[in-house]
Request: fold
Amino acid sequence: MPEDKNTQTQSSTAKQQATAAKDKAAAAASSATETAKAQARDLADTVSTEATNYAYQARDTAADEVKGVASALRTAADELRSGSPQERSFSQLADGLADVSETMRDKDLGEVVGDLNGFAKRNPLVFLGGAALLGFVATRFAKASSDRPAGGYGGSGVEYDDDDRIDRPMPGTPPTGAASTVPSRATAQPAAPTVVTGDKV
Reply:
């Protein structure tokens, strides 16, 4: 019977070791889970902070753009005849946009969106008109700010005159080697006049 006792002791030891290994595995899994959760929380906090920072930067950029439009409207109003309806309208729009710009800087992002929605609901025509005007001004500004493409029209490396005739290659562009089908002003010769003599051929 000593073998049964020895087998029972080994079995008991094996059970204890299995239980200990199971407890260690559970503790390690729990620790890994908590570590993963903590890392996920840290990552979410970082992403949230970055998103908030980006949103505030966008808000400040939008406020700067609105302020720029207000300044442009004020300049346009100054150039118009004093007391004219256009001058008064531009001045009022410029004042309103300057106020909006300052309000945007002072408020939280959620408040700005809520105020904008409320204004749009209370004054839909003014909101749509302002949005159209802002779009028009932004388009004009973008068009005025863009440079003429390098190389004249379409970037071909050839300069055109006002009458869309090829004048000469632009300085700094290598010659293409292809002859132009449009004569330049320097080489153009007037066509000889056709003389009608009365004889039919």
About this structure: The first strand starts at residue 158 and ends at 160. The CA atoms of residues 165 and 182 lie 7 Å apart. The chain is about 70% helix and 5% strand. The radius of gyration is 39 Å.
